[in-house]
Design brief:
mainly beta; 157 residues; six-stranded antiparallel sheet; seven-stranded antiparallel sheet; Jelly Rolls
């Protein structure tokens, strides 16, 4: 079975972002509290976290607040128009080292995206007073088959 990690944190405010190294196949769930500018996805260590929105270069693959999924400044996919996240919705993300898939309130959105290469990390950014709660374990909805919480990589000397 693939692994995911759990690290609950909140992102809010004006231009914040964060990333945590991942191992295996992760699932992330976001609870949208205040809809501003935000994005979630995966990124390499080379991504410029100070330049939002992400998805402008080869170092990030993200779902943006408007429902578009961007990588290398190209729209790779888009959530259906009637499925744009609203305040209080839960967005689920899975990544299997090739393809990122999106879920809205536990329902698969069937809009996969791929293209990023190398070691990637979960990435979340917020701006314009957006508030997101991120769950890397203890999910609101059951993780898809083959996915579980993200495991932190550790070195033992």
């Amino acid at each position: 079975m693939a692994s995911m990690f759990t690290c609950c944190f909140g992102c809010c405010g004006e231009g914040g972002s964060g990333h945590i190294p991942l191992k295996e196949m992760p699932t992330v769930q976001l609870d949208t509290h205040h809809m501003g500018v935000w994005g979630v996805g995966v990124a390499t260590q080379k991504v410029n976290l100070n330049q939002v929105p992400l998805g402008r270069d080869t170092n990030s693959l993200v779902l943006r607040h408007d429902g578009s999924v961007y990588h290398n400044n190209e729209e790779k996919n888009r959530l259906p128009a009637n499925s744009l996240p609203q305040e209080g919705d839960v967005i689920g993300i899975t990544y299997d080292h090739v393809e990122m898939n999106l879920y809205l309130n536990g329902k698969h959105m069937h809009c996969p995206a791929s293209g990023i290469r190398g070691t990637v990390y979960p990435v979340v950014y917020v701006d314009d007073s957006a508030i997101l709660d991120c769950q890397f374990s203890d999910f609101y909805h059951t993780a898809p088959q083959g996915f579980e919480k993200i495991l932190f990589e550790q070195q033992i000397f």
